[in-house]
UniProtKB/TrEMBL annotation, chain A:
Homodimer. It comes from the Eukaryota. Catalyzes the exchange of an acyl for a long-chain alkyl group and the formation of the ether bond in the biosynthesis of ether phospholipids. Catalyzes the exchange of the acyl chain in acyl-dihydroxyacetonephosphate (acyl-DHAP) for a long chain fatty alcohol, yielding the first ether linked intermediate, i.e. alkyl-dihydroxyacetonephosphate (alkyl-DHAP), in the pathway of ether lipid biosynthesis. The lineage of its organism: Eukaryota, Metazoa, Chordata, Craniata, Vertebrata. Its EC number is 2.5.1.26. It catalyses: 1-hexadecanoylglycerone 3-phosphate + a long-chain fatty acid = a 1-acylglycerone 3-phosphate + hexadecanoate; hexadecan-1-ol + 1-hexadecanoylglycerone 3-phosphate = 1-O-hexadecylglycerone 3-phosphate + hexadecanoate + H(+); a long chain fatty alcohol + a 1-acylglycerone 3-phosphate = a 1-O-alkylglycerone 3-phosphate + a long-chain fatty acid + H(+). It comes from Oryzias latipes (Japanese rice fish). The gene is AGPS. This is Alkylglycerone-phosphate synthase. It holds the Pfam family FAD_binding_4.
From TrEMBL, chain B:
It is found in: Membrane. Residues 141-270 form the Phospholipid/glycerol acyltransferase domain. GO terms for biological process: ether lipid biosynthetic process. The gene is GNPAT. Keywords: Acyltransferase, Membrane, Transferase. Transmembrane segments: none annotated. It comes from the Eukaryota. Belongs to the GPAT/DAPAT family. One of its GO terms (cellular component) is peroxisomal membrane. This is Glyceronephosphate O-acyltransferase. The lineage of its organism: Eukaryota, Metazoa, Chordata, Craniata, Vertebrata.
Amino acid sequence: MASNSCGGGSDRQMAAQHRLSVIAGHLQRPSGSNTAVLAVDCKGQGSKPFVSSEKRTVPRRRQEIMKWNGWGYSDSKFVYNKKGQAEFTGKRYKLSGMIIPGLKDWMENTFGATLQHKAAATPALNSSAVPPPTLNEAFVEELKSTGVPFSADAEDRVFRAHGHCLHEIFALREGKIGRVPDMVVWPNCHSDVVKIVELACKHNVCLIPYGGGTSVSSALECPPEETRSIISLDTSQMNRILWIDEKNLTAHIEAGIIGQDLENLLNESGYCTGHEPDSMEFSSLGGWVATRASGMKKNIYGNIEDLVIRIKMVTPQGVIEKSCQGPRMSTGPDIHHFIMGSEGTLGVITEVTMKIRPVPEYQKYGSVVFPNFEQGVACLREVARQRCAPASIRLMDNEQFKFGHALKPQVSSIFTSFLDGLKKFYITKFKGFDPNRLCVATLLFEGNREKVLQHEKQVYDIAAKFGGLAAGEDNGQRGYMLTFVIAYLRDLGMDYFVIGESFETSVPWDRVLDICRNVKARIIHECKDKGVQFPPLSTCRVTQTYDAGACVYFYFAFNYRGLSDPVHVYEQVEHAAREEILANGGSLSHHHGVGKLRKEWMRETVSSVGMGMLQSVKDYVDPNNIFGSRNLL
Amino acid sequence: MASKVVYSPRDPMLKKRDDFVDVLEERRRSSDLRYALRCYSPVLYKGPTTSKASELKTMVLQSDQLHYVVNQVSRESGVPLDDVQAEASVILEEMAHRLQLSTVRFFAFTLSKVFKAIFRSICVNEEGVQRLQQVVQEHPVVLLPSHRSYMDFLLMSYLMYTYDLPLPAIAAGMDFMGMKVVGEMLRMSGAFFIRRSFGGDKLYWAVFSEYVKTMLRNGFAPLEFFLEGTRSRTSKSLTPKLGLLNIAMDPFLKGEVFDVSLVPVSISYERVLEETLYARELLGVPKPKESTSGLFKARRVLSEDYGSIHVYFGPPVSVRSLAEGRVNRSQFSLTPRHIPRRPSEDVHSFVNDAAYRLVRAQEENMVLKPWVLLASLLLQNQAAGQNRGVPLDELIQQAVWLRDLCRQFGAFLHWPDHIPSSEVVSSSLSLHGGLVRVSEDRVYLALEQEPHCSLTAEEELLSQAVVVLSCASYRNQVLHVFLRPALLAAAIHTASSSQKQEVYSSFLFLRNMFSNEFILCPGAAVQDFEEACYLLTKVGALHINQHKVLTAERGHRTLAFLTSILDPFLQGYQMVCSFLCEDATQALTERRFVPAVQAFIIKHLLKGRLRYPEVLSSDLQRNALAALLRLGAVQKVQGGEESGTLKVNRIMLNSLEDTLGGRLSTQKALRAHL
């Protein structure tokens, strides 16, 4: 019924869909009919939501559309077809249904991973392997009376016991289940959350908020030492835009909404938030706030801390929120900064007021090839110095450039492949770029057409000073597409004994080259040291530029055939890589957060006094550790 | 903290060492000219390399590091920026090397001739060379040869050329520049020149350190320098100098390179070219200034036999693995890296420890020749018996005993086992005919002068001391093998009881006293003690239980030998103490210390109160003074009219002297002073 409020004509819907396909072209095909339909209603909510839609991506039972032991949608994955060619299944993405001819060779050459050696995953969850729930009867009884839906079903619980760290997914593929939540609750609105938290405090049960489940910091892992009943508080049903304020360009949104739904819904009204983290298909607004997320287009729209105006969070001590919507305040330390990055340790974020912008009229991808990574970094630094970074600018190193190349779908016409050949000839032979050293920057410009073109010229002029050659829109667009499919690719790797992960840091400009070289070398070094039989893939890219530094992403993967405990080896190498990052002046995390995975370095990162400050906040807000995920501190 | 580390005994006899190959053999068989002109294509560093010396200079002059200091100097001194920059470029010009392959080829040719003339063989461990070839491609490399002779760096470059390794850039002292032609030739074969002292000169330091770091960062060439700072005149390893090592580690610590490989190289000479020159120098005859004409006078050298040389390239040591868990590298990310900063306390102690470990690695891979053992025995005999000589068979018998002891202690001894011991001994004696005489089957040190001139007693003593010191320099080569057990033997000797604790505190005292004299790694006292106990128990000289250290019946000979090998040093240090107590005047400065103490010692030697002419060694005297300064028994007055004079703490000196002589228990001494 709520959906009627803005159901509008199908024309309008069509127009929105059209815009969407342009704007989020790199992301997703216009969604088909297989998205779940869900009635939204909250008994506690007096007024009707301003914007809503029938279409919601995430149902209560996530397992209906998503993999239980891998990334993303069940229907989308990389497989080797009968001819032994790699193919991406499903209909959701641009790449869907396409053959990727270069992938098999790349996998073989890079990892020594061949089709003959397959490491199959456990096909389905064996419910008997899931420990029975420890329920707090009194809590359950009272919860029933509130009418908030809940479940103690094994599948529901297992699905919420993990994020997407390698060890988590690896264990699931092996069918190994550790401590999982004892129950899942689906509050429908803020007041539902207030009730749940009150009951949790009353009956001393442990709450772990769950948004999109895309954490890569072990933040969703249930602490094995937790003896109380653990309740996973799934916010996915709190997914409405409550109002849009066009005068101030703000929107008030329930925190459980996931990124793609938020953008789709705002687009219908001609707006966007512009916040596009790589996980935006699945991650939630509340999750962004709780981990200090960063979006690809932060150069125009800002990171999450620049986007939020007001946050409502339910804590054991009550609800915390500001009393006005002033754009900036000098009222002591900003309480939002206790909330942002709290990683579910203080409470549940229920509603957020955030900035919105009109959907940009024009968008253009681009790419630049540099003779080497050093020149590329120098160019990005100059772009940052002149503060003329486009919506997004990313620099891939040589290995990643080759990787991107391997992911090129089969070209349909001879003409295109001829053109590709010509381009390659021009760059390597005519311009003398070494194919084993060159690297590529991908660009995304946004705004009105005239300004975009002007901006584009400015950036290409700077690039030219560093030996950069414009290399077309396609390469750029493919670069961004890669971001969304790379997580799927990990599942394919795991099918063939390859495990890997990405991790990120932020680092001052003068350190970028050094940190990239040293961390990559350290990974290779450690793999050799730990007995990895095949050379690992160790690659990086610079994904964000700031005035004083950059965000660097590392990808690392290896073929684990011959290792008895690959995950342990993997963890040791990742640990060493993080040590190397810190030793080279990098931060503990740029946007993934700390969770439990990086906790051990918190003290040296923020000093003992800093830890004490954070601890005292925790002690005041949640003295009984109801929010007992044990992240961060 | 360090005392918690327990020494895990590993039998030193099992120490694996590579075999040697003689590089001169090939040279004796084929044309030197063709060798000098052959195609030289060294393996290169995998990273981006700069190959031109001129590019290197530009990089240094344009570096942020140098700009910062140039600005700073200009601001502080009021000299215009351009002038300071120009000065920097003059400094660099004076310093930088200009490697030229033609010069290298010239050296390859002439050195082949010279080496063949004076050396029997130059033996190299080729496995070490292969390791080096590997590592040169992976990381920037620092070569750290031991320094016993001017020959060292010529030899190193010669070998690098022979094995198709990149030619090193060698840090050389400015004194070579005095030799005009040769200086320039050295420069063209890869040497760069640094002033011996430039304490406060910021600009010089900046140019110098940036020059070295730029070479490392860019994989320009392996860097080569001498950890010991200067040639050791005594053949004992010198305590390491940290300046260049600090600079060489900096690019790693600051994350500018992934790793730096340090390769200790041990070069051992059967006969050192400068042997008597060194002895004279130690006795206070100043060393001749290096001059080209002086070098030609050295031509007579060409007709002599200097035996063989052994060069051992040790396993590369990764700075990264040394620093693991020792240095928090993130400390360098809080200030801009181009601003020069004093190394923090932890970095300093890390570099210091690393330096000691590296010098130890050099020591351990030094090849010892039978003569070294003979020299030790002859010196002990001489001190005991007023040069009545030793019967040859007795010497042979003693040498064989010592050889076996040496091997059990893990020494790298080259004693040809397939030749009868008597032949080994007599061939060693004949190679060192200048130092030792054999007549009527007795072996003497060659102390007696030709009676052609009438010498004063003092002059005679000095000329004898030249021979003794030359011999001592050979004995010193083996000291590092015996040092720890010898300290323990001396500790047992001086300790008031056989209580382990008592012996340990004696050991600690002596170790502390001698840490300027010998290479004793800082903070490794417990390991050293455990090692000494292990070795002496192993050879059956000691019985050690929970509480007591007891001399075994058959251990007396070993312990006696060990105590007497240390005795000259013990006596020497006592001499220095008693000089300072009795004879030091108010106005004694550091500069006048050596002549004064030498005069004092000469008096005692002539009166027969001291048996060791080697105590006249200025090296020993300086080390003793350094130790006393470190312990606070002597203080250098800073500032005021008496600036630079030495202020003596007589009470402390007296008790140190007594403790060294075993007249005072160390525990009391320790309590009183340390």
